[in-house]
Amino acid sequence: MEDVLRPLFVIGGSITITLVIGWLVDHGLRRTDARHPETPLWDLLRRCRVPLQFVLCAALLRGSYDQAHLTADHDKATGQVLTLVLIGATAWLVVRIATAIVESSYSRYATSTRDPARVRRVRTQVTLIQRVVTAIVGVVAAAAMLLTFPAMRTVGTSMLASAGLLGIVAGIAAQSTLGNLFAGLQIAFGDMVRIGDTVVVDEEWGTVEEITLTFLTVKTWDERRFTMPVSYFTSQPFENWSRGGPQMTGTVFFHLDHSAPVEAIREKVHEIVQDCAAWDGREWGVAVTDTTPSTMVVRALVTARDADAVWTVRCEVRERVVAWLCDKHPYALPRVATAPAVLPPEDAGPQSRVLESSGPNGHARRHR
């Protein structure tokens, strides 16, 4: 009878203690969060309840399994399994706690800071810090699990003797990976590019969606994703439209006939930007910036609060001005000037040729 009750008492007691402690911790965090709603840390720490219960249960069973005589013939293997579970659950708990602290710090900073650029910078840094912490905890946990095996301890001692040579070989083999790793840290703390920044890479316009220690993802306007190594941004030039503030200045170029009414175009652009909700009201302008033998270049300048808004303003100005010119001033659109062809002397070819060219009114003229 004792052989049956003792295992039930040990296992049942461990589970009961685990559930009670988990409930008490969760209840305490819930009450603390209700008293301090301005701090999101306590609500985020409630996500640690499950890994905490795993740690408690594994620790209780690891300390009392030999008293329960659950598996008398496999006590060593059972203890090894419980040790591995305890190490893994502890690493899981540490990662959850670190994530809660990082997310809480970022949330408080984001709510108290009005500068979007600084918020994106902090978001990029805390994201990479969180990934570094997760990677370090994972490596330490894996090493601790391996060291619980006696055979691995012997292998580890022999490997330490040749650590210098192995380090050199590993450094050469992982040169590209290490370069991306250090480039990711440089981007995070050098404030070169941040999550949410609008960038132009290889003539593609998009928004930085994700930054890791090795790669960076850019989401384009048509919802494509460009994934590239972070070392690209430390070795190649790129445009960062969000650098130095979100406000943007955009231009729209029109190639028009020399007879185009510039003053009327200027008034029309002013009317369009006043009706456009994306225009921030800072500046607008129309000027002739260049001429060619057949056309002149009219530039419309507009401003907006960010890159997305300036794109909207540019498209609306371009569309409405072109439609207005076609409707009210069609003569201002670019035209192809033509002239009658010069015929060769009579002794150089056939006596009679018929050539056609376009006249000013669009009708074909016949030349003989």
Tell me about this structure:
With 368 residues, the protein is α+β, with helices and mostly antiparallel strands. It folds into 4 domains: 2-181; 190-240, SH3 type barrels; 248-332, Alpha-Beta Plaits; 338-368, no CATH class. It contains 11 helices and 10 strands. Strands 4-3-2-1-5 form a 5-stranded antiparallel beta sheet. A 3-stranded antiparallel beta sheet has the order 6-8-7, covered by helices on one side. A hairpin with a 3-residue loop joins strand 2 and strand 3 (215-220). The chain is elongated.
- The helix/strand series, from N terminus to C terminus, equals HHHHHHHHEEEEHEEHEEHEE
Shape: elongated
Assign the structural class, choosing from mainly alpha, mainly beta, alpha/beta, alpha+beta, or little secondary structure.
alpha+beta
How large a portion of the residues is in β-strands, by DSSP E?
A: 15-25%
* Sheet with most strands: strand arrangement: 4-3-2-1-5
Number of helices: 11
> How many whole angstroms does the radius of gyration measure?
36 Å
- Main sheet record: 5 strands, antiparallel
Model regions low in confidence, pLDDT < 50 over at least 5 residues? 159-163, 350-368
How far from one another are the termini? 123 Å
Helicity, as a percent range: 55-70%
- Please report the total strand number as a whole number: 10
Mean pLDDT, to the nearest integer, reads 76
- How many separate domains? 4
